[in-house]
Protein backbone atom coordinates (compact mmCIF):
# COMPACT_ATOMS: atom_id res chain seq x y z
CA UNK A 1 0.00 0.00 0.00
CA UNK A 2 1.35 3.38 -0.90
CA UNK A 3 1.68 6.14 1.59
CA UNK A 4 -1.16 8.52 1.24
CA UNK A 5 -0.47 12.17 1.13
CA UNK A 6 -3.41 13.23 3.27
CA UNK A 7 -2.37 10.99 6.12
CA UNK A 8 -0.06 12.91 8.44
CA UNK A 9 -2.45 15.71 9.17
CA UNK A 10 -1.14 18.65 11.09
CA UNK A 11 -3.09 19.16 14.30
CA UNK A 12 -4.73 22.58 14.03
CA UNK A 13 -6.65 21.60 10.92
CA UNK A 14 -10.39 22.18 11.11
CA UNK A 15 -12.82 19.33 11.69
CA UNK A 16 -14.40 19.85 8.31
CA UNK A 17 -11.06 19.67 6.52
CA UNK A 18 -10.18 16.55 8.40
CA UNK A 19 -13.51 15.00 7.55
CA UNK A 20 -13.21 15.89 3.89
CA UNK A 21 -9.69 14.53 3.78
CA UNK A 22 -10.75 11.40 5.60
CA UNK A 23 -13.70 10.72 3.33
CA UNK A 24 -11.63 11.35 0.22
CA UNK A 25 -9.00 8.98 1.55
CA UNK A 26 -11.64 6.36 2.27
CA UNK A 27 -13.79 6.64 -0.82
CA UNK A 28 -10.76 6.74 -3.06
CA UNK A 29 -9.70 3.50 -1.50
CA UNK A 30 -6.49 5.20 -0.56
CA UNK A 31 -6.70 4.77 3.16
CA UNK A 32 -2.98 4.40 3.66
CA UNK A 33 -1.42 2.69 6.58
CA UNK A 34 0.06 5.80 8.14
CA UNK A 35 -2.18 8.21 9.92
CA UNK A 36 -5.15 5.90 10.32
CA UNK A 37 -3.96 4.88 13.74
CA UNK A 38 -4.08 8.53 14.68
CA UNK A 39 -5.70 9.52 17.94
CA UNK A 40 -9.27 8.46 18.46
CA UNK A 41 -10.61 11.98 18.73
CA UNK A 42 -14.10 13.29 18.17
CA UNK A 43 -15.57 10.03 19.32
CA UNK A 44 -18.18 9.38 22.03
CA UNK A 45 -18.91 5.75 22.90
CA UNK A 46 -22.02 4.78 24.82
CA UNK A 47 -23.29 1.36 25.92
CA UNK A 48 -25.69 0.09 28.56
CA UNK A 49 -29.37 -0.19 29.37
CA UNK A 50 -31.87 -0.83 26.61
CA UNK A 51 -34.43 1.06 28.73
CA UNK A 52 -32.44 4.29 28.64
CA UNK A 53 -31.45 3.69 25.00
CA UNK A 54 -34.35 5.63 23.42
CA UNK A 55 -33.65 8.70 25.61
CA UNK A 56 -29.99 8.70 24.68
CA UNK A 57 -30.84 8.01 21.05
CA UNK A 58 -33.20 11.00 20.89
CA UNK A 59 -30.66 13.30 22.51
CA UNK A 60 -27.78 11.95 20.40
CA UNK A 61 -29.84 12.47 17.27
CA UNK A 62 -30.47 16.10 18.16
CA UNK A 63 -26.79 16.53 19.09
CA UNK A 64 -25.67 14.97 15.83
CA UNK A 65 -27.68 17.44 13.78
CA UNK A 66 -25.71 20.28 15.35
CA UNK A 67 -22.36 18.47 15.45
CA UNK A 68 -22.33 16.21 12.39
CA UNK A 69 -18.60 15.51 12.61
CA UNK A 70 -18.74 13.90 16.03
CA UNK A 71 -18.87 10.11 15.79
CA UNK A 72 -21.30 8.85 18.45
CA UNK A 73 -21.79 5.12 18.94
CA UNK A 74 -24.61 3.60 20.93
CA UNK A 75 -25.22 -0.06 21.86
CA UNK A 76 -27.73 -1.98 23.94
CA UNK A 77 -25.85 -4.21 26.32
CA UNK A 78 -27.99 -4.04 29.45
CA UNK A 79 -26.95 -1.93 32.44
CA UNK A 80 -24.76 -4.62 34.01
CA UNK A 81 -23.27 -5.73 30.70
CA UNK A 82 -22.45 -2.13 29.91
CA UNK A 83 -20.71 -1.47 33.24
CA UNK A 84 -18.85 -4.77 33.33
CA UNK A 85 -17.72 -5.24 29.75
CA UNK A 86 -17.51 -1.71 28.46
CA UNK A 87 -17.66 1.23 30.85
CA UNK A 88 -15.49 -0.01 33.71
CA UNK A 89 -13.12 -1.63 31.21
CA UNK A 90 -12.46 1.82 29.79
CA UNK A 91 -14.09 1.08 26.46
CA UNK A 92 -16.96 3.52 26.65
CA UNK A 93 -17.28 7.07 27.89
CA UNK A 94 -20.90 6.92 29.01
CA UNK A 95 -23.07 4.09 30.33
CA UNK A 96 -26.85 4.11 30.20
CA UNK A 97 -28.20 2.67 33.45
CA UNK A 98 -31.70 1.84 34.60
CA UNK A 99 -30.45 1.37 38.18
CA UNK A 100 -27.73 2.89 40.32
CA UNK A 101 -24.22 1.50 39.93
CA UNK A 102 -23.41 -1.45 42.22
CA UNK A 103 -20.53 -1.47 44.68
CA UNK A 104 -18.73 -4.24 42.81
CA UNK A 105 -18.96 -2.21 39.62
CA UNK A 106 -17.62 0.94 41.29
CA UNK A 107 -14.73 -1.18 42.53
CA UNK A 108 -14.08 -2.58 39.05
CA UNK A 109 -14.12 0.94 37.61
CA UNK A 110 -11.74 2.11 40.33
CA UNK A 111 -9.25 -0.65 39.54
CA UNK A 112 -9.10 0.61 35.97
CA UNK A 113 -8.78 4.22 37.01
CA UNK A 114 -12.28 5.23 35.97
CA UNK A 115 -14.43 7.50 38.09
CA UNK A 116 -18.13 7.17 37.28
CA UNK A 117 -20.25 10.27 37.78
CA UNK A 118 -23.97 9.68 38.14
CA UNK A 119 -26.61 11.86 36.48
CA UNK A 120 -30.32 11.18 36.70
CA UNK A 121 -31.81 11.86 33.27
CA UNK A 122 -35.40 10.62 33.51
CA UNK A 123 -37.93 8.67 35.54
CA UNK A 124 -39.56 5.48 34.33
CA UNK A 125 -42.63 3.56 35.42
CA UNK A 126 -41.59 -0.10 35.21
CA UNK A 127 -44.72 -1.70 33.80
CA UNK A 128 -46.16 -5.16 34.35
CA UNK A 129 -48.21 -6.28 31.37
CA UNK A 130 -50.56 -9.12 30.51
CA UNK A 131 -52.51 -10.16 27.45
CA UNK A 132 -55.64 -8.01 26.84
CA UNK A 133 -57.72 -11.23 26.90
CA UNK A 134 -56.77 -11.77 30.51
CA UNK A 135 -59.90 -10.03 31.80
CA UNK A 136 -59.71 -11.55 35.26
CA UNK A 137 -56.83 -9.40 36.38
CA UNK A 138 -56.41 -5.61 36.45
CA UNK A 139 -54.43 -5.03 39.57
CA UNK A 140 -51.86 -6.98 41.55
CA UNK A 141 -50.43 -6.33 44.97
CA UNK A 142 -46.70 -6.30 45.48
CA UNK A 143 -47.00 -9.57 47.46
CA UNK A 144 -48.85 -11.27 44.62
CA UNK A 145 -46.25 -10.08 42.13
CA UNK A 146 -43.50 -11.40 44.36
CA UNK A 147 -45.24 -14.76 44.58
CA UNK A 148 -45.46 -14.96 40.77
CA UNK A 149 -41.88 -13.97 40.03
CA UNK A 150 -39.96 -15.54 42.93
CA UNK A 151 -38.23 -18.88 42.64
CA UNK A 152 -40.42 -21.64 44.07
CA UNK A 153 -43.54 -19.43 44.15
CA UNK A 154 -46.84 -19.71 42.32
CA UNK A 155 -46.91 -21.76 39.13
CA UNK A 156 -50.51 -21.24 38.04
CA UNK A 157 -52.88 -18.28 37.98
CA UNK A 158 -55.17 -20.20 40.33
CA UNK A 159 -52.37 -20.33 42.91
CA UNK A 160 -52.81 -16.57 43.37
CA UNK A 161 -56.59 -16.38 43.31
CA UNK A 162 -58.86 -19.42 43.15
CA UNK A 163 -61.25 -17.67 40.78
CA UNK A 164 -58.51 -17.25 38.21
CA UNK A 165 -57.89 -19.86 35.51
CA UNK A 166 -56.08 -23.06 36.37
CA UNK A 167 -53.35 -22.38 33.82
CA UNK A 168 -49.62 -22.08 34.09
CA UNK A 169 -47.97 -18.66 33.84
CA UNK A 170 -45.99 -17.89 30.74
CA UNK A 171 -43.46 -15.37 31.95
CA UNK A 172 -41.39 -12.92 29.93
CA UNK A 173 -38.90 -10.72 31.70
CA UNK A 174 -35.64 -8.86 31.44
CA UNK A 175 -32.35 -10.74 31.21
CA UNK A 176 -30.05 -10.74 34.23
CA UNK A 177 -27.64 -8.31 32.51
CA UNK A 178 -30.47 -5.81 32.49
CA UNK A 179 -30.94 -3.00 34.97
CA UNK A 180 -34.68 -3.59 34.62
CA UNK A 181 -34.16 -7.09 36.03
CA UNK A 182 -32.08 -5.72 38.89
CA UNK A 183 -34.60 -3.05 39.73
CA UNK A 184 -37.56 -5.43 39.60
CA UNK A 185 -35.62 -7.94 41.64
CA UNK A 186 -34.85 -5.37 44.30
CA UNK A 187 -38.22 -3.62 44.42
CA UNK A 188 -40.49 -6.66 44.17
CA UNK A 189 -38.63 -9.84 45.05
CA UNK A 190 -36.48 -8.42 47.83
CA UNK A 191 -33.31 -9.79 49.34
CA UNK A 192 -34.74 -12.85 51.07
CA UNK A 193 -36.07 -14.44 47.91
CA UNK A 194 -34.62 -15.08 44.48
CA UNK A 195 -36.03 -14.07 41.13
CA UNK A 196 -37.18 -17.21 39.35
CA UNK A 197 -34.98 -18.41 36.52
CA UNK A 198 -37.53 -20.44 34.54
CA UNK A 199 -38.88 -17.52 32.47
CA UNK A 200 -38.12 -16.18 29.00
CA UNK A 201 -35.29 -13.75 29.68
CA UNK A 202 -34.37 -11.22 27.00
CA UNK A 203 -32.65 -7.90 26.50
CA UNK A 204 -34.99 -7.19 23.57
CA UNK A 205 -38.16 -5.70 25.02
CA UNK A 206 -39.91 -6.25 21.73
CA UNK A 207 -39.70 -10.00 22.36
CA UNK A 208 -41.59 -9.51 25.62
CA UNK A 209 -44.33 -7.58 23.82
CA UNK A 210 -44.65 -10.35 21.23
CA UNK A 211 -44.63 -13.08 23.86
CA UNK A 212 -47.35 -11.44 25.92
CA UNK A 213 -49.43 -10.75 22.81
CA UNK A 214 -49.15 -14.40 21.90
CA UNK A 215 -50.62 -16.02 24.99
CA UNK A 216 -53.63 -15.31 27.18
CA UNK A 217 -51.78 -16.55 30.26
CA UNK A 218 -48.58 -14.62 29.70
CA UNK A 219 -47.13 -11.87 31.85
CA UNK A 220 -44.09 -9.65 31.37
CA UNK A 221 -42.41 -6.48 32.61
CA UNK A 222 -40.36 -3.70 31.00
CA UNK A 223 -39.95 0.06 30.77
CA UNK A 224 -43.08 2.18 30.34
CA UNK A 225 -42.23 3.35 26.82
CA UNK A 226 -42.71 -0.14 25.42
CA UNK A 227 -46.20 -0.22 26.90
CA UNK A 228 -47.11 3.31 25.85
CA UNK A 229 -46.34 2.43 22.23
CA UNK A 230 -48.54 -0.68 22.29
CA UNK A 231 -51.47 0.20 24.58
CA UNK A 232 -53.99 -1.77 22.50
CA UNK A 233 -52.10 -4.99 22.06
CA UNK A 234 -51.05 -5.49 25.68
CA UNK A 235 -52.63 -4.55 29.00
CA UNK A 236 -50.78 -2.83 31.82
CA UNK A 237 -51.59 -3.91 35.37
CA UNK A 238 -52.09 -1.44 38.18
CA UNK A 239 -49.90 -2.01 41.19
CA UNK A 240 -51.22 -2.01 44.74
CA UNK A 241 -48.46 -1.10 47.15
CA UNK A 242 -50.37 0.10 50.20
CA UNK A 243 -54.06 -0.42 49.69
CA UNK A 244 -54.80 1.44 46.46
CA UNK A 245 -54.30 0.32 42.88
CA UNK A 246 -52.24 2.82 40.89
CA UNK A 247 -51.90 2.49 37.15
CA UNK A 248 -48.55 3.14 35.51
CA UNK A 249 -48.45 6.45 33.63
CA UNK A 250 -46.21 9.43 33.17
CA UNK A 251 -48.34 11.38 35.66
CA UNK A 252 -48.32 8.78 38.44
CA UNK A 253 -44.59 8.23 38.00
CA UNK A 254 -43.94 11.96 38.18
CA UNK A 255 -46.11 12.47 41.25
CA UNK A 256 -44.47 9.52 42.99
CA UNK A 257 -47.77 7.64 43.49
CA UNK A 258 -46.70 4.70 41.37
CA UNK A 259 -44.68 2.78 43.91
CA UNK A 260 -42.55 0.76 44.16
CA UNK A 261 -41.97 0.45 40.41
CA UNK A 262 -41.30 4.03 39.38
CA UNK A 263 -37.57 4.31 39.15
CA UNK A 264 -34.91 6.83 38.21
CA UNK A 265 -32.94 6.33 34.99
CA UNK A 266 -29.31 7.38 34.90
CA UNK A 267 -26.37 7.90 32.69
CA UNK A 268 -22.88 7.47 34.12
CA UNK A 269 -20.12 9.55 32.62
CA UNK A 270 -16.47 8.60 33.08
CA UNK A 271 -14.82 11.63 34.64
CA UNK A 272 -11.58 10.91 32.76
CA UNK A 273 -13.42 10.99 29.41
CA UNK A 274 -14.57 14.56 30.10
CA UNK A 275 -11.07 15.68 29.10
CA UNK A 276 -12.20 14.98 25.52
CA UNK A 277 -14.11 18.01 24.19
CA UNK A 278 -16.58 15.84 22.25
CA UNK A 279 -17.63 13.93 25.39
CA UNK A 280 -17.79 17.17 27.35
CA UNK A 281 -20.04 18.85 24.77
CA UNK A 282 -22.30 15.84 24.52
CA UNK A 283 -22.65 15.46 28.30
CA UNK A 284 -23.57 19.13 28.67
CA UNK A 285 -26.04 18.90 25.78
CA UNK A 286 -27.56 15.77 27.39
CA UNK A 287 -28.06 17.48 30.74
CA UNK A 288 -29.72 20.49 29.14
CA UNK A 289 -32.10 18.39 27.04
CA UNK A 290 -33.04 15.87 29.74
CA UNK A 291 -35.50 18.38 31.18
CA UNK A 292 -37.35 18.84 27.88
CA UNK A 293 -40.04 17.13 25.82
CA UNK A 294 -37.44 15.02 24.06
CA UNK A 295 -37.72 12.68 27.06
CA UNK A 296 -41.50 12.60 27.38
CA UNK A 297 -41.83 11.89 23.66
CA UNK A 298 -40.11 8.55 24.13
CA UNK A 299 -42.36 7.68 27.06
CA UNK A 300 -40.45 8.70 30.17
CA UNK A 301 -40.74 11.50 32.71
CA UNK A 302 -38.22 14.32 32.20
CA UNK A 303 -36.22 15.53 35.18
CA UNK A 304 -37.20 18.83 36.80
CA UNK A 305 -35.35 22.04 36.09
CA UNK A 306 -33.86 21.97 39.57
CA UNK A 307 -32.46 18.52 38.93
CA UNK A 308 -31.11 19.75 35.61
CA UNK A 309 -29.30 22.68 37.25
CA UNK A 310 -27.91 20.32 39.87
CA UNK A 311 -26.63 17.99 37.14
CA UNK A 312 -25.06 20.84 35.21
CA UNK A 313 -23.30 22.11 38.33
CA UNK A 314 -21.98 18.60 39.02
CA UNK A 315 -20.81 18.28 35.42
CA UNK A 316 -19.07 21.65 35.37
CA UNK A 317 -17.28 20.81 38.59
CA UNK A 318 -15.99 17.54 37.13
CA UNK A 319 -14.96 19.22 33.89
CA UNK A 320 -13.06 21.87 35.81
CA UNK A 321 -11.20 19.12 37.67
CA UNK A 322 -10.08 17.17 34.60
CA UNK A 323 -9.19 20.13 32.40
CA UNK A 324 -6.95 21.82 34.94
CA UNK B 1 -37.55 -34.95 -27.56
CA UNK B 2 -35.80 -37.09 -25.05
CA UNK B 3 -38.62 -39.60 -25.29
CA UNK B 4 -38.24 -39.87 -29.08
CA UNK B 5 -34.65 -40.85 -28.91
CA UNK B 6 -35.35 -43.37 -26.23
CA UNK B 7 -38.06 -45.16 -28.19
CA UNK B 8 -35.43 -47.27 -29.92
CA UNK B 9 -34.01 -48.47 -26.67
CA UNK B 10 -37.18 -49.63 -24.94
CA UNK B 11 -35.76 -53.02 -24.24
CA UNK B 12 -32.30 -51.93 -23.26
CA UNK B 13 -32.94 -51.29 -19.58
CA UNK B 14 -34.09 -47.64 -19.66
CA UNK B 15 -37.50 -48.70 -18.37
CA UNK B 16 -40.83 -48.15 -20.01
CA UNK B 17 -41.53 -45.00 -21.90
CA UNK B 18 -44.06 -42.82 -20.14
CA UNK B 19 -45.30 -39.58 -21.60
CA UNK B 20 -46.97 -38.74 -18.29
CA UNK B 21 -43.77 -39.14 -16.34
CA UNK B 22 -41.98 -36.95 -18.83
CA UNK B 23 -44.53 -34.17 -18.50
CA UNK B 24 -44.80 -34.62 -14.76
CA UNK B 25 -41.09 -34.27 -14.26
CA UNK B 26 -41.02 -31.19 -16.40
CA UNK B 27 -43.80 -29.62 -14.32
CA UNK B 28 -42.04 -30.61 -11.14
CA UNK B 29 -38.86 -28.90 -12.26
CA UNK B 30 -40.84 -25.84 -13.27
CA UNK B 31 -42.56 -25.76 -9.88
CA UNK B 32 -39.20 -25.96 -8.14
CA UNK B 33 -38.03 -22.96 -10.14
CA UNK B 34 -41.22 -20.98 -9.56
CA UNK B 35 -41.34 -21.49 -5.80
CA UNK B 36 -38.01 -19.74 -5.43
CA UNK B 37 -38.78 -16.93 -7.83
CA UNK B 38 -42.33 -16.34 -6.67
CA UNK B 39 -41.43 -16.21 -2.99
CA UNK B 40 -38.57 -13.82 -3.75
CA UNK B 41 -40.91 -11.61 -5.76
CA UNK B 42 -43.51 -11.72 -3.01
CA UNK B 43 -40.91 -10.77 -0.43
CA UNK B 44 -39.61 -7.87 -2.50
CA UNK B 45 -43.11 -6.66 -3.26
CA UNK B 46 -44.13 -6.91 0.37
CA UNK B 47 -41.07 -4.98 1.54
CA UNK B 48 -41.42 -2.41 -1.23
CA UNK B 49 -45.07 -1.78 -0.36
CA UNK B 50 -44.21 -1.40 3.33
CA UNK B 51 -41.39 0.98 2.47
CA UNK B 52 -43.63 3.37 0.54
CA UNK B 53 -43.89 6.65 2.40
CA UNK B 54 -40.92 5.84 4.63
CA UNK B 55 -38.13 5.72 2.10
CA UNK B 56 -37.52 9.39 1.35
CA UNK B 57 -34.66 11.84 1.22
CA UNK B 58 -34.85 12.48 4.95
CA UNK B 59 -34.50 8.79 5.67
CA UNK B 60 -31.32 8.62 3.62
CA UNK B 61 -29.70 11.73 5.09
CA UNK B 62 -30.78 11.80 8.76
CA UNK B 63 -29.19 10.16 11.78
CA UNK B 64 -31.27 7.52 13.62
CA UNK B 65 -34.03 8.70 15.94
CA UNK B 66 -36.50 6.96 18.28
CA UNK B 67 -39.37 8.66 16.46
CA UNK B 68 -40.05 6.65 13.26
CA UNK B 69 -40.85 9.80 11.28
CA UNK B 70 -37.42 11.27 11.99
CA UNK B 71 -35.44 8.05 11.80
CA UNK B 72 -32.59 8.11 9.33
CA UNK B 73 -30.14 5.64 7.86
CA UNK B 74 -27.15 7.79 6.88
CA UNK B 75 -24.52 6.62 9.42
CA UNK B 76 -25.32 2.97 8.70
CA UNK B 77 -25.05 3.51 4.93
CA UNK B 78 -21.71 5.30 5.28
CA UNK B 79 -20.54 2.61 7.71
CA UNK B 80 -21.45 -0.23 5.38
CA UNK B 81 -19.71 1.40 2.44
CA UNK B 82 -16.58 2.15 4.49
CA UNK B 83 -16.46 -1.49 5.63
CA UNK B 84 -17.00 -2.71 2.07
CA UNK B 85 -14.12 -0.65 0.68
CA UNK B 86 -11.79 -1.91 3.37
CA UNK B 87 -12.91 -5.49 2.76
CA UNK B 88 -12.24 -5.16 -0.96
CA UNK B 89 -8.79 -3.70 -0.25
CA UNK B 90 -7.97 -6.57 2.08
CA UNK B 91 -9.49 -9.57 0.31
CA UNK B 92 -8.54 -8.81 -3.28
CA UNK B 93 -4.74 -8.88 -2.92
CA UNK B 94 -4.80 -11.66 -0.32
CA UNK B 95 -7.28 -13.79 -2.22
CA UNK B 96 -5.64 -13.41 -5.62
CA UNK B 97 -2.20 -13.88 -4.09
CA UNK B 98 -3.23 -17.11 -2.40
CA UNK B 99 -4.90 -18.37 -5.56
CA UNK B 100 -1.82 -17.63 -7.70
CA UNK B 101 0.40 -19.42 -5.21
CA UNK B 102 -1.82 -22.47 -5.03
CA UNK B 103 -2.34 -22.71 -8.78
CA UNK B 104 0.98 -21.58 -10.22
CA UNK B 105 3.67 -22.18 -7.62
CA UNK B 106 2.66 -24.87 -5.15
CA UNK B 107 3.59 -28.39 -6.07
CA UNK B 108 0.77 -30.91 -5.82
CA UNK B 109 1.89 -32.50 -2.57
CA UNK B 110 0.08 -33.53 0.60
CA UNK B 111 0.53 -30.09 2.13
CA UNK B 112 -1.07 -28.33 -0.82
CA UNK B 113 -3.95 -30.75 -0.83
CA UNK B 114 -4.35 -30.25 2.92
CA UNK B 115 -4.44 -26.47 2.49
CA UNK B 116 -6.85 -26.81 -0.41
CA UNK B 117 -9.19 -29.00 1.63
CA UNK B 118 -9.09 -26.53 4.50
CA UNK B 119 -9.91 -23.56 2.31
CA UNK B 120 -12.88 -25.42 0.87
CA UNK B 121 -14.08 -26.22 4.38
CA UNK B 122 -13.53 -22.67 5.64
CA UNK B 123 -15.92 -21.40 2.98
CA UNK B 124 -18.68 -23.30 4.76
CA UNK B 125 -18.00 -22.22 8.34
CA UNK B 126 -20.94 -20.27 9.86
CA UNK B 127 -20.36 -16.53 9.99
CA UNK B 128 -20.91 -16.34 13.74
CA UNK B 129 -17.79 -18.47 14.19
CA UNK B 130 -15.80 -15.92 12.21
CA UNK B 131 -17.29 -13.27 14.44
CA UNK B 132 -15.91 -15.07 17.46
CA UNK B 133 -12.53 -15.36 15.77
CA UNK B 134 -12.57 -11.65 14.97
CA UNK B 135 -13.48 -10.85 18.57
CA UNK B 136 -10.58 -12.91 19.89
CA UNK B 137 -8.03 -11.97 17.27
CA UNK B 138 -8.61 -8.38 16.23
CA UNK B 139 -10.43 -6.96 19.23
CA UNK B 140 -8.71 -9.02 21.91
CA UNK B 141 -5.20 -9.80 20.72
CA UNK B 142 -4.43 -6.95 18.31
CA UNK B 143 -6.57 -4.51 20.27
CA UNK B 144 -7.76 -2.47 17.31
CA UNK B 145 -10.93 -1.48 19.11
CA UNK B 146 -14.23 -3.32 19.41
CA UNK B 147 -16.70 -2.44 16.69
CA UNK B 148 -14.21 -0.30 14.73
CA UNK B 149 -14.11 -0.01 10.94
CA UNK B 150 -10.88 -2.02 10.86
CA UNK B 151 -12.06 -4.78 13.18
CA UNK B 152 -15.30 -5.15 11.25
CA UNK B 153 -13.58 -5.15 7.87
CA UNK B 154 -10.90 -7.64 8.89
CA UNK B 155 -13.42 -10.01 10.46
CA UNK B 156 -15.74 -10.04 7.45
CA UNK B 157 -12.68 -10.28 5.16
CA UNK B 158 -11.72 -13.54 6.84
CA UNK B 159 -15.22 -14.75 6.23
CA UNK B 160 -15.23 -14.14 2.48
CA UNK B 161 -11.55 -14.84 1.82
CA UNK B 162 -12.07 -18.58 1.14
CA UNK B 163 -14.78 -17.76 -1.40
CA UNK B 164 -12.51 -15.26 -3.14
CA UNK B 165 -9.59 -17.72 -3.18
CA UNK B 166 -11.65 -20.57 -4.57
CA UNK B 167 -13.22 -18.51 -7.34
CA UNK B 168 -9.87 -16.93 -8.24
CA UNK B 169 -8.35 -20.42 -8.43
CA UNK B 170 -11.11 -21.54 -10.78
CA UNK B 171 -10.46 -18.53 -12.99
CA UNK B 172 -6.71 -19.10 -13.07
CA UNK B 173 -7.19 -22.80 -13.75
CA UNK B 174 -9.36 -22.00 -16.76
CA UNK B 175 -6.49 -20.21 -18.53
CA UNK B 176 -5.29 -22.74 -21.15
CA UNK B 177 -1.93 -24.29 -20.36
CA UNK B 178 -0.83 -23.87 -23.96
CA UNK B 179 -0.73 -20.10 -23.41
CA UNK B 180 1.59 -20.51 -20.45
CA UNK B 181 3.80 -22.85 -22.44
CA UNK B 182 3.88 -20.35 -25.29
CA UNK B 183 4.97 -17.65 -22.89
CA UNK B 184 7.72 -19.81 -21.44
CA UNK B 185 8.73 -20.71 -24.98
CA UNK B 186 9.27 -17.02 -25.68
CA UNK B 187 11.73 -16.98 -22.81
CA UNK B 188 9.45 -15.31 -20.28
CA UNK B 189 9.99 -15.90 -16.59
CA UNK B 190 7.28 -17.29 -14.32
CA UNK B 191 6.47 -13.83 -13.00
CA UNK B 192 6.24 -12.39 -16.51
CA UNK B 193 3.97 -15.24 -17.55
CA UNK B 194 1.66 -14.73 -14.60
CA UNK B 195 1.57 -10.98 -15.07
CA UNK B 196 1.20 -10.84 -18.84
CA UNK B 197 -0.66 -14.03 -19.68
CA UNK B 198 -2.43 -15.65 -16.75
CA UNK B 199 -3.77 -12.70 -14.77
CA UNK B 200 -5.24 -10.72 -17.70
CA UNK B 201 -7.10 -13.81 -18.92
CA UNK B 202 -8.25 -14.77 -15.44
CA UNK B 203 -9.17 -11.28 -14.22
CA UNK B 204 -12.84 -11.19 -15.30
CA UNK B 205 -13.46 -14.50 -13.55
CA UNK B 206 -11.59 -13.37 -10.45
CA UNK B 207 -13.62 -10.17 -10.32
CA UNK B 208 -16.90 -12.01 -10.69
CA UNK B 209 -16.03 -14.17 -7.71
CA UNK B 210 -14.92 -11.18 -5.65
CA UNK B 211 -18.09 -9.24 -6.46
CA UNK B 212 -20.29 -12.13 -5.39
CA UNK B 213 -18.30 -12.48 -2.18
CA UNK B 214 -18.61 -8.74 -1.46
CA UNK B 215 -22.35 -9.08 -1.99
CA UNK B 216 -22.38 -11.62 0.77
CA UNK B 217 -20.19 -9.42 2.96
CA UNK B 218 -22.50 -6.40 2.86
CA UNK B 219 -25.39 -8.40 4.29
CA UNK B 220 -23.46 -10.02 7.13
CA UNK B 221 -24.79 -9.24 10.60
CA UNK B 222 -23.65 -11.98 12.97
CA UNK B 223 -19.88 -11.27 12.85
CA UNK B 224 -20.56 -7.58 13.46
CA UNK B 225 -22.67 -8.40 16.49
CA UNK B 226 -19.91 -10.66 17.79
CA UNK B 227 -17.24 -7.96 17.58
CA UNK B 228 -19.65 -5.69 19.47
CA UNK B 229 -20.23 -3.21 16.70
CA UNK B 230 -22.62 -0.60 18.10
CA UNK B 231 -26.16 -0.95 16.81
CA UNK B 232 -26.58 2.76 16.30
CA UNK B 233 -24.07 5.35 15.24
CA UNK B 234 -24.39 9.11 14.79
CA UNK B 235 -22.06 11.08 12.58
CA UNK B 236 -19.68 9.52 10.09
CA UNK B 237 -16.54 7.52 10.84
CA UNK B 238 -13.62 9.94 11.14
CA UNK B 239 -10.84 7.37 11.33
CA UNK B 240 -10.41 3.66 10.71
CA UNK B 241 -10.70 3.15 14.45
CA UNK B 242 -14.08 4.89 14.64
CA UNK B 243 -16.96 2.79 15.81
CA UNK B 244 -19.09 1.76 12.92
CA UNK B 245 -22.57 0.41 12.40
CA UNK B 246 -23.75 -1.29 9.24
CA UNK B 247 -27.06 -1.41 7.42
CA UNK B 248 -28.12 -4.93 8.47
CA UNK B 249 -27.20 -4.18 12.08
CA UNK B 250 -29.29 -1.02 12.15
CA UNK B 251 -32.20 -2.87 10.55
CA UNK B 252 -31.93 -5.62 13.17
CA UNK B 253 -31.97 -2.98 15.87
CA UNK B 254 -35.02 -1.21 14.43
CA UNK B 255 -36.91 -4.48 14.33
CA UNK B 256 -36.86 -4.50 18.13
CA UNK B 257 -38.39 -1.05 18.58
CA UNK B 258 -41.75 -0.84 20.30
CA UNK B 259 -43.57 1.14 17.61
CA UNK B 260 -45.22 -0.79 14.79
CA UNK B 261 -44.15 2.00 12.40
CA UNK B 262 -40.62 0.76 12.88
CA UNK B 263 -41.42 -2.88 12.23
CA UNK B 264 -43.41 -2.27 9.09
CA UNK B 265 -42.22 1.06 7.71
CA UNK B 266 -38.71 1.94 8.75
CA UNK B 267 -37.35 -1.61 8.66
CA UNK B 268 -38.79 -2.08 5.16
CA UNK B 269 -37.25 1.20 4.00
CA UNK B 270 -33.92 0.02 5.39
CA UNK B 271 -34.18 -3.31 3.61
CA UNK B 272 -35.00 -1.64 0.28
CA UNK B 273 -32.05 0.75 0.71
CA UNK B 274 -29.75 -2.16 1.51
CA UNK B 275 -30.89 -4.06 -1.59
CA UNK B 276 -30.60 -1.04 -3.87
CA UNK B 277 -27.09 -0.22 -2.64
CA UNK B 278 -26.05 -3.85 -2.94
CA UNK B 279 -27.34 -4.04 -6.51
CA UNK B 280 -25.72 -0.71 -7.39
CA UNK B 281 -22.34 -1.80 -6.10
CA UNK B 282 -22.68 -5.09 -7.94
CA UNK B 283 -23.65 -3.49 -11.23
CA UNK B 284 -20.87 -0.91 -11.03
CA UNK B 285 -18.43 -3.74 -10.43
CA UNK B 286 -19.87 -5.72 -13.32
CA UNK B 287 -19.55 -2.73 -15.64
CA UNK B 288 -15.92 -2.28 -14.62
CA UNK B 289 -15.34 -5.97 -15.20
CA UNK B 290 -16.90 -5.89 -18.65
CA UNK B 291 -14.78 -2.91 -19.63
CA UNK B 292 -11.76 -4.85 -18.53
CA UNK B 293 -12.89 -7.88 -20.45
CA UNK B 294 -13.22 -5.88 -23.68
CA UNK B 295 -9.82 -4.30 -23.33
CA UNK B 296 -7.91 -7.56 -23.12
From TrEMBL, chain B:
<keyword id="KW-0813">Transport</keyword>
<dbReference type="InterPro" id="IPR000515">
    <property type="entry name" value="MetI-like"/>
</dbReference>
<comment type="similarity">
    <text>Belongs to the binding-protein-dependent transport system permease family. CysTW subfamily.</text>
</comment>
<dbReference type="InterPro" id="IPR005672">
    <property type="entry name" value="Phosphate_PstA"/>
</dbReference>
<protein>
    <recommendedName>
        <fullName>Phosphate transport system permease protein PstA</fullName>
    </recommendedName>
</protein>
<keyword id="KW-0812">Transmembrane</keyword>
<keyword id="KW-0472">Membrane</keyword>
<feature type="transmembrane region" description="Helical">
    <location>
        <begin position="27"/>
        <end position="53"/>
    </location>
</feature>
<keyword id="KW-1133">Transmembrane helix</keyword>
<feature type="transmembrane region" description="Helical">
    <location>
        <begin position="73"/>
        <end position="102"/>
    </location>
</feature>
<feature type="transmembrane region" description="Helical">
    <location>
        <begin position="114"/>
        <end position="138"/>
    </location>
</feature>
<feature type="transmembrane region" description="Helical">
    <location>
        <begin position="144"/>
        <end position="166"/>
    </location>
</feature>
<dbReference type="GO" id="GO:0005315">
    <property type="term" value="F:phosphate transmembrane transporter activity"/>
</dbReference>
<dbReference type="Pfam" id="PF00528">
    <property type="entry name" value="BPD_transp_1"/>
</dbReference>
<dbReference type="GO" id="GO:0005886">
    <property type="term" value="C:plasma membrane"/>
</dbReference>
<keyword id="KW-1003">Cell membrane</keyword>
<dbReference type="GO" id="GO:0035435">
    <property type="term" value="P:phosphate ion transmembrane transport"/>
</dbReference>
<feature type="transmembrane region" description="Helical">
    <location>
        <begin position="262"/>
        <end position="288"/>
    </location>
</feature>
<feature type="domain" description="ABC transmembrane type-1">
    <location>
        <begin position="77"/>
        <end position="285"/>
    </location>
</feature>
<dbReference type="InterPro" id="IPR035906">
    <property type="entry name" value="MetI-like_sf"/>
</dbReference>
